[in-house]
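S1.2 Input.
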Amino acid sequence: MPDTTLSEFLLAACMFAGAALYTSVGHGGASAYIALMALFGLPQAVMKPTALALNIIAASFGAARYTQAGLFRWRTLWPFLIGALPFAFIGGRIQLPAEFYRPLVGAVLLLSAARLLFPEAIKTKESVTDAPIPLAIAIGAFIGLLAGLTGTGGGIFLSPVLLFFGWSALREASGIVALFIVANSLAGLAGNITSLEALPAALPLYAAAVFAGAI
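S1.3 Output.
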């Protein structure tokens, strides 16, 4: 990639670190990629499809590893997916103007950062119960729409929900969320397949960095 600039290499290095941290807990890292792309001044049209594409790479590897280790429960996941997938598709089709997209993404990033400031706020309950299907579908729909609109996978919202309500054990939640992120990201990209035309020329570099971080 002869035209690769120093800033692209620096961005790739930051994405590597983000992927390594996020995938260690079953996430894809889209919120980190979006924040980094904004800091490096990438156009808004590039941010959403790039974050989703990188999310798929990182979360797929994590999902495979967690599933292989037996840290996954299909009964917990499928009601959330039923609600999330169509709304992630719808959210992916909606291209918000910059004056709406940036505040929405900023709010998502602030919420995820605020969550890290209170690590003891959500603890795993001693007993795990199945989520009520209608409620899980409704929650999944909301998370899916938000994920599609912003270009994230929704894992930063699903994880605390699963643990707060006692719908998953801590380590199983990582495997469940990883698969949820992969499916949501695919649906978001499918919702606006034309956005793939906006993918940056340096995407192979970013993809390699994210995959290495996931490993």
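S1.4 Remarks. The chain has a mean pLDDT of 87.
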